[in-house]
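Quick question about two entries, pasted in order.
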Amino acid sequence: MADVYCSDCKKNTEVVFDHSAGDTVCSECGLVLEAHSIDETSEWRTFANESGDNDPVRVGGPANPLLTDGGLSTVISKPNGASGDFLSSSLGRWQNRGSNPDRSLIVAFKTIATMSDRLGLVATIKDRANEIYKKVEDQKSIKGRNQDAILAACLYIACRQEDKPRTVKEICSVANGATKKEIGRAKEYIVKLLEVEMGQSMEMGTIHAGDFLRRFCSHLGMNNQAVKAAQEAVQKSEELDIRRSPISVAAAVIYMITQLSDDKKLLRGSKIKPYLLSWEREASK
C-alpha cells in the first residue's frame, strides 16, 4: 500500500491496488482513483504450447540488420512425434524447399557465435565479426575458399579492432580444423579485399604486451602478487624502445618475474617452458 491524494477525502490516504481489475482504490472511502492501469512489472507466466516447457520467454530473438528480413521471418516448427499434425508437416516441407537468401549467412553467424562462446568473447566482438563476414560475403569472392578459415579470420580481425586481441593459436583452437597458416592467409585476403572496397587502409588496432599478459598469467596459475609485478614490468617496457613482438615481450616478462619470485613451483614443474616456447613461435610468425 502507498499514500496517494484522494479527491473525496481531501487528503493523502492509503490506497489498495487491485491487480486483477487494474484499479487503484482509496482504503478509506473506496473511491477508484485510477482504473485499468497497466502493470509494468515482470510477468512470469508460461505461454508455451507444451505443458513440459517451463520457459517463460514469449518473444523471439532480436532483429538482425545484417539479414534480409531482419531475422524476423516465420519458421514453421516440426510436429512432435510420428503422429504429428499433417498440415504443419507439409508446410514445413514447403518452407524448406523455398529459397532462403540468408541461409548461408545464418549458418556462418552461428559458427562465429560458437567460436566466440568457446573463447569467452563479448557480444560486441561477435557482432563485429558478423559485420566483417557480411562485407566479405557481399563481394561474392569467397567461393572455393576454406570457410572455417574465413570465419576464424573474421573473428581474429574483430578482436583486433575491438582492442581485445587473441593470438592466431587461440583462434585456431576453435576454428573447426583450420590451420594457423590457412587463417593467416584468409586474414590477409580479407584485409586486402576490404581495403579495396573502402579505398583506404583497414584499421586493425594496436597490439600491446599487456593485452595478453593477464590471460597468459592465468593459464600458468600465477598468484596475484606475481601478476601485479608482471603488469608493472610490462608498463615500464612500453616506455623503452623494444622492437619485439608484444607476445615475445609478455613471455619474457613472465619468465623474469617467475625467476625472481619466491614461488618456484612453475619453474620446477617445467610448466612455463612449453608456454614460453609456444608464444615465442607464435610471435615469430
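Here is the second entry:
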Amino acid sequence: MLSRKARLDAHGEDSSYFLGWKEYEKNAYDDVQNPTGIIQMGLAENQLSFDLLESWLASNQDAARLTKNGESVFRELALFQDYHGLPDFKNELVEFMAEIRGNKVNFDPRKLVLMAGATSANETLMFCIAESGDAFLLPTPYYPGFDRDLKWRTGVELVPIHCSSSNGFKVTKCALEEAYQQAHKLSLNVKGVLITNPSNPLGTTMGRDELNDLIDFAVAKKIHIISDEIYSGTVFDHPSFISIMEALMDRKLQDTDLWSRVHIVYSLSKDLGLPGFRVGMIYSNNETVVSAATKMSSFGLISSQTQYLLSKILSDKKFTRNYLKENRKRLKTRREMIVAALRNAGIGCLKSNAGLFCWVDMRHLLSSNTFDAEMELWKKILREAGLNISPGASCHCSEPGWFRICFANMSEDTLNLSMQRIKALAERIQQCRRGRVTHQDSGCNSRRRSFSKWVLNLCSYDREPDR
C-alpha cells in the first residue's frame, strides 16, 4: 500500500498545460525527420542567446574544464560542500541581480538561499510560511505549474485574484479585497500574496501604483508578499522593471514589520537561458525564513561544479552587461516578429514588454464565449495546426479565449512555419462561419479525426471552480 499523496491524482497533470506537452512528446516536430509534427510553443525557454554563452565558454576554457590558473579544481569541487553554497557564486549572483535592477537595489549574499530551480524555491517558501490548509492569493492568469509547485506537497490552497482584460489584467485594490474575502468565506487563513513580476503568462511588468496597492494590502492584512522575479532580466521595452524591494525602499519601509514579510524568488533559467542547470534562489530579509530554507535546501542543492562555472561567467561584468543588452534586443525583435505575424492572421496580443511569450487574444475564433469553446479551439490548434500552446483556462484566466504562445524556444524558420499554420487554421475557422467551404472540408465538417484518448476525455474546462 502506498501513501495517500502517492495515490491521489493531485499533481495537476490532467491540466491541458501538461497534456499538450505529452502529445507533443509523442509527435515532436523536426524540420527533417518529422516536418508535420507538433511544434512546441508551450515551453518558456530562451534559446535566442546561446551563441553568446558558447562564445564565452570557448574563450574561457579554464572555467569549463574546472581549472584555475592551469591547476585542476576538480577534487575541491567534487568533495562534500555544505548547503550554504559557494561564497564566490553567491557574491556574483547578488551583483548580477542588482545589475538587472539598474543597481537601484543592493542584495546581501547572507540573505540568499540557493535552491535547485525556482520550482524548489517557491515550494520551500510555502513550507516556511504556511501550514497545510492555509491560503495564498495569486493574480490571474498565472503560471499553470503553480498548481503543482505551491500546492501538491505543501497542502497550501491557492485563491485567485481575478484580473480583467478591460484594464490589461492589472491587479486592483478591489480584486485583492474580493479574493481575500472569498478566502475567508471558505474559512481559509490567508498567509500572503504571490505575484510574478514580470508576469508569466502576460509578459508585462507591474507598475508602481500596482506595487504600492499590493504593499498597502499586505500591511493592512499583516500578510506576506512573495515576488517571483525570474523574468526580470528579460524586460526589453518600457516601462522598466520595478522590483518589490525597490518599491519597499522607495517608501522607506526597511524598519517596518512588512520588511521581514517580503521574499523574492529568482532563477537563471530565463535570464541566462539555463533551465537545465537548475539554479534558483530565495532572497529574504527574514532571518528565520533564511535559516529554515537553508536547511530545507539539502533536498535540492545546486552542484558545486555548476556554481563554480556560473561564478566565473557572472564575474565577467563586461560579458554579463553585453549579454543582458543583446538578449533584450533579440527578445524584442522576436516578439515584434510574432506579433506582426499574428496580426497578419487577424489575431491580436496583449501589449507586453517582457518575457518569452505573448498573451494572445483568440476570443473572436471561439464558437461561443465559454471555456468549452476555448477547449474546442485548443484541440483544433493542437491536432489540426500542430501547435502546442497553453489555453487561458490552464492559467486560471477568468475570460475564455486567451492563450499563451512562447516564441524564444525555436528557430526563426520554425516560428515562421508555426505562424503559417495558425493563420491557415484561423482562415478555415472564419470561412466555416461565413459558409464558404463545403460540408466535406476538413476545417468544419462533422467527421472526427482520430485523436488521442486523453484529449477526447478532457473535461470541458480546465480550471478549478471559483473559490
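Reply: Residues 445-467 have pLDDT under 50 and may be disordered. The chain is about 40% helix and 15% strand. Hope that helps.
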